[in-house]
């Protein structure tokens, strides 16, 4: 660990170079006093046990000489190996899962998201007795046994977040995902074609819901006639809708990416007819079993609702920027490239937005 003079944005500064967990780190300061204080605090914070673990981590990087130098006086590399093994083995996986889930719940994520996250972590806990067993190759093999690419991506995302949390909590020595890339988790799969509903299919679908499953009408009206993402519909609340102003507010807590909130007003009149009729209902999504049953009955394409809205809205107005704002896409050109190849006649698009609920 050393402090040296450097340049920061053209001004004199000081660089503190040090190793942490076997990795070379740098921190910059404008004053030598701050740099020396950082160095002193860092040295005081490193306990003999931490030095042993750090030495083993350095040895893993094939720098044996540097590893020996890092060891406290009178300690051996064999002790470093044992200590590092104990470091990962003794971590309380169950306790870490519980605290990780508490943070997720505090973010107000949907019950479905929380349920799936908990299930994936519980499955991981059954498969690995300790963090020491969770090597990069073992993690990769475990995740890739989960079947479909979409499932693999979900497992990878959940476990990557969890391991990052554990590493930041100083519960594990290394994060195995640091040595894995997204390409490592890719498997050969058949591409699923995402289609959109014909006007007749949309009418039949909504008629079926009104006659047999009215509790789901409000949910699908929001997606089919406002282009709201399905996962946003699952977290949607009635207070987000202003019936007087004819506007819908999307708090950043439910928006994809969570970077900004939106207020949208430029909706077609039929949306408000549907929302008014089912005003007293909550936004509820059918079960997987029921969705599969209805999908087979009406021959519905995969992931159709938002795609249907965007296709008909673009067909009606030929205005990518207008559709981009309503669907809250970040880029109008991307939207145009994705949907303009499937545009329909303007009169057909107009008839789609004339679909009304039963009187």
β content, as a range? 5-15%
The residue ranges in which pLDDT falls below 50 over 5 or more consecutive positions are: 45-50, 189-193
Helix content class:
40-55%
Give the N-terminus to C-terminus distance in angstroms.
77 Å
* Structural Rg: 27 Å
Overall morphology: elongated
Report the sheet with the most strands, covering strand number, pairing sense and barrel closure: 3 strands, antiparallel
Number of extended strands = 6
Sheet/helix structural class: mainly alpha
Give the number of helices.
17
Going across the major beta sheet, what is the strand order? Answer: 1-2-3
Order of helices and strands: EEEHHHHHHHHHHHEEEHHHHHH
Mean pLDDT: 81
- Seen as an oligomer or otherwise, the chain set is single chain
Structure overview:
The structure is a single chain. The chain has helices at residues 32-45, 48-60, 64-70, 77-89, 93-106, 111-127, 136-144, 149-168, 199-212, 217-226, 230-234, 269-277, 288-298, 305-317, 320-327, 332-339, 346-352; strands at 2-8, 11-20, 23-29, 241-242, 247-250, 262-264. It contains 17 helices and six strands. Strand 1 and strand 2 (11-20) form a beta hairpin. By secondary structure, it is mainly α. Helix 2 (48-60) packs across helix 4, helix 10 runs antiparallel to helix 12 (269-277) and helix 10 packs parallel to helix 14 (305-317). 53% of the residues lie in helices and 9% in strands. The N and C termini lie far apart (77 Å). It has a three-stranded antiparallel beta sheet with strand order 1-2-3. It has a three-stranded antiparallel beta sheet with strand order 4-5-6, with no helix packed on it.
